[in-house]
Amino acid sequence: MDHFWIAVFTSLTLVAWVSSSQVVLESKPCDSSGQCTWNWILETKTGPGIVGWTRRSGAAIRYTVCDVDLHPSAPQPSSWLLSDQLIIANDTNRIDITVEYLIRSCSHLPPNNSGGAYCVNFFYLYVNQSDHYILDKALYPNPLLNTAAYENVARIGRLINVKTLETIKILNKGKYLLLAFHNDGACNSLYSVKVTYYVCPGGPLVNDNSLVSLARTVAPANDSQSIRVEGSCGKDTVHVAGSLYVHCQSNGEWNTSGLKGKCICKEDMQNVGGKCQACPDGKYNDQNGLNCTVLPSAPRNINFTFINQSSVEISWLPPAITVIRRNCSMTSIVASLVTIMKIISVLMTLAGVMSITYHIRKV
């Protein structure tokens, strides 16, 4: 029964998805250290009553814009919020841009619950991807003058009148990235922006203290392009028959459903937190993938009783400590007893007894 449960547990482990890692390229308003700064570039087409994106401080830094209920002579609003240029790793396949925002419905805004002629319930995300680093921010492409320098990648506005998180996924096309949020009539607030990409983490698989090690792998753009990676067995381990191939998925998780083999600790070592350590004194491990266990003791009270000149009965009590292992089982104990009986047989033959019958009995 013990072996049955071990087999079931292993099967469940092999179909697991092992945890992912995200590399953060940008996090506004606060970074991972808790430092909060957010000073991006503002570009706005001027006109009567048009204010454009405005940086707000206080309890939390954010950017807002609400150019509605404009004078009839005012042009359609066109306000841009530009990020700093971000450095993208060469092997990055997909970039995830997560924005937290709130859009106020035009039907709740003046005049006459319409927001005016230009009011809309969405805004846009544009990106500029290139292989050229621009040191001077004043030289960033101005989207008011050169909109073609930016690619429109998303219309944001999945929900209105509620603070919302939305993630836009884009393919990486260069070493550097600029974000540009364009507002042409929405009344909205931008609370945070986070730019990340996924990697499948390197090192030992984290499930069940696995000893299979994998190289850190940048996640593919989508699961149809999952990356096949071969694992390896590390220090003080041996490879048990079967392939060590797994797949890196687009969400940065290792798909281990194809993992057929495994790595186990060498003889007289055991897996402790994903590392092989020597067995404590008085314990052993015969390289079966289990933890160290105590040594089995010898059979107790072995007795030889001569029934007659041709028969001898051997009896014993079970060992005080019994352990099942490949090379030290009850079968091997019986084999040792048979060897003893053969020796007795030779001695009795020399004494003139032509044949002997053995009766083995475990008490």
From TrEMBL:
Recorded GO terms, molecular function? ATP binding
Q: CDD domains from the entry?
A: FN3
- Which InterPro entries does this entry report, sorted A to Z? Ephrin_rcpt_lig-bd_dom, Ephrin_rcpt_TKs, FN3_dom, FN3_sf, Galactose-bd-like_sf, Growth_fac_rcpt_cys_sf
Keywords, A to Z, come to: ATP-binding, Membrane, Nucleotide-binding, Receptor, Signal, Transmembrane, Transmembrane helix
Eph LBD domain residues = 2-205
Keyword presence, ATP-binding:
yes
Indicate the principal place this protein occupies in or around the cell.
membrane
What topology in the membrane does the UniProt record assign? Single-pass membrane protein
The UniProt entry, under SMART domains, shows: EPH_lbd
| Membrane-crossing segments per the record | 333-358
| Localization (cell) | Membrane
Keyword Flavoprotein found: no
Specify the signal sequence span.
1-20
Q: Which GO terms describe its cellular component?
A: plasma membrane
State the PANTHER family in the record: EPH RECEPTOR A5, RECEPTOR PROTEIN-TYROSINE KINASE
Name assigned to this protein: Eph LBD domain-containing protein
- Organism name: Desmophyllum pertusum
